[in-house]
Amino acid sequence: MASRLVFVAAAALLLFCLAQVSSDVEIEDQQNLVIRGANRRLLPFMDCGGLCKERCSLHSRPNLCSRACGTCCVRCKCVPPGTSGNRELCGSCYTDMTTHGNRTKCP
Question: What is the DSSP-derived secondary structure letter of residue 97?
Answer without folding.
Answer: -
